[in-house]
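User: Sequence in, structure out. Go.
Assistant: Echoing your sequence, followed by the structure tokens.
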Amino acid sequence: MQRIKADSLTPITLRVNGRRYRAAIEPRLLLSDFLRQECGLTGTHIGCEHGVCGACTVLVNGIAMRSCLMLAIAMEDQEITTIEGLSNHPDFPAVYRAFTGHHALQCGFCTPGIVVSAMAEVLGHEVSAGEIDDILSGHLCRCTGYLGIKAALREIAGTAASKTEQQIDAKGSDGP
């Protein structure tokens, strides 16, 4: 392992979950690694490190984004919200109930990223089954088969799937 010279570190201050975090980091440090290593916020999971699995999803200025695709240094002056920050949101208990009630949790590795996306893109919005599929297409879950997750997202959105959509879901799906 190569040692990092102190003069190659760059001081940054990031605003995460309403709190300021200061650190001296390598300019190439990913936001996902900054959140876990410098902030101690381990709810942001690292799965693929290619932006495919969605486990590292956080909100940047209210928009769901993959933290493994962003450099921490580029996030100065941005508002970053992780799953830990969303757990204080007044609607989080309803989201939690929907996920547990529909058995959408399983191992939990993908759950933080999906919940972050759900709270940004689904909560309180009218969404169709197709839009739910689009949102979930950026998240890989190897445990649930997505049926419980889709049901939870429909509940969170306050929309009921049409009878046709329910019949399609009842037949099963290998993915989003």
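User: And one key feature?
Assistant: The radius of gyration is 18 Å.
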